[in-house]
Design a protein that fits this description.
Number of strands: 4
Distance between the termini: 14 Å
Structural class: alpha+beta
Largest sheet: 4 strands, antiparallel
Number of helices: 11
Order of helices and strands: EEEEHHHHHHHHHHH
Shape: elongated
Low-confidence stretches: none
């Protein structure tokens, strides 16, 4: 059972009376209670390999280590009809119109690039995870901008990309979790903190609760 506990100015996620940690050993901390509650709910439903754990681990670990340009380049590279099913529109007008109804019109690479440059670190991390889950950068962009509901995107993914492979309800829940995660502001002081400082924050936190 994963639970939420207060750790100084942050909220920590605890499992089996020990603070949960990212693959690089950074404790799962956030200054936002609603975000921490979402992470707890996702962990209790999907475990440590669900989208919530993946999002926060990527934010904590790679936010500190990898330049944001790496994520921008990865997303722009994948914005290609050969890699992104939502960009691979049928030649006939009826088929193309159906794809547009599900996923909206194709946007230019320049427009996507401008949005990525202006995005927060949390939005960039969320874009990468959403694109990986959906197999589409366009779907991830529509999701994070709130241009299309997760229910429609999930149903479209099942129809056009992975029929029968995913339950639409669970896929919708995953996409909604990613969208909510992306809406929280960045926490630069948390990203910049050293492992020693973060360990001091969570030291003894489980025993006090």
């Amino acid at each position: 059972m994963y639970k939420l506990v207060r750790a100084g100015q942050y909220y920590a996620i605890v499992h089996d009376e020990r603070p949960m940690r990212s693959p690089l050993g950074r404790p799962y901390l956030t200054g936002f209670r609603l975000l921490a509650e979402d992470l707890c709910e996702d962990l209790n439903r999907f475990g440590p390999f669900g989208s919530g754990a993946t999002l926060h681990a990527a934010y904590l670990d790679h936010g500190r280590k990898a330049p944001r340009t790496h994520r921008e380049s990865w997303l722009l590279m994948r914005y290609d009809p050969a890699l992104d099913f939502a960009l691979d529109r049928p030649q006939d007008r009826t088929g193309a119109a159906m794809m547009t109804a599900w996923f909206g019109p194709v946007i230019s690479l320049e427009k996507l690039s401008a949005w990525l440059r202006a995005a927060s670190l949390r939005q960039l991390v969320s874009m990468v995870v959403a694109a990986s889950v959906s197999c589409s950068v366009l779907v991830a962009h529509r999701l994070l901008r709130g241009e299309l509901p997760a229910t429609r995107l999930a149903a479209g993914m099942r129809k056009w990309e992975r029929p029968g492979a995913d339950d639409v309800a669970e896929l919708t829940l995953t996409l909604d979790n990613i969208r909510r995660y992306a809406q929280a502001p960045d926490e630069p002081e948390l990203i910049a903190a050293t492992p020693f400082e973060l360990d001091a924050t969570v030291q003894g936190v489980a025993q006090r609760h």
